[in-house]
Amino acid sequence: MFLSYYIHLKPVRAGLIPVARLQHYPHSSFHQLWNPRRRWSFVQYATCLQTSGGFRDSPDGRIQYSNFLKQLSLDVSEQKKMGFGQSSNNHG
User: Fold this and answer.
1) C-alpha–C-alpha distance, residues 31 and 8, integer Å
2) How far is the first Cα of the chain from the last one, in angstroms, to the nearest whole number?
């Protein structure tokens, strides 16, 4: 579950894009999650949303997940608890 948070917030933590524009960043799997017509066939987006907090694969569920990511992006202590610092030390 934490892996999807880490992956989806990586461009934000790298300073490539603000979290409020994450759904528009085409180089992130969050872009495909947000835009069902652009989804990769091999990714289970509904499973990602469900295991990331019980979110549904619906417009409302995607908004809720996006809002959760926005909150998480501001909570450095929670990111550390989830191991974000350990994961990103060697990758910038």
Assistant:
1) 9
2) 22
**5: its two tokens:** 């948070």
User: Residue 92 in 3-state DSSP?
Assistant: coil
How many residues make up the chain in this entry? 92
12, 18 contact by CB (below 8 A): yes
pTM, two decimals, is 0.80
DSSP per-residue letters across 45-89: HHHHHHHTTS--SSHHHHHHHHHHHHHHHH-HHHHHHTTHHHHHG
State phi, psi for 21 to the nearest 5 degrees.
Answer: -110, 10
Buried b (16+ CB within 10 A) or exposed e, 11-30: bbbeeeeebeebbebeebbb
- Per residue in 10-68, pLDDT tens? 999 899 999 999 999 999 889 999 999 999 899 899 998 998 889 999 999 999 999 99
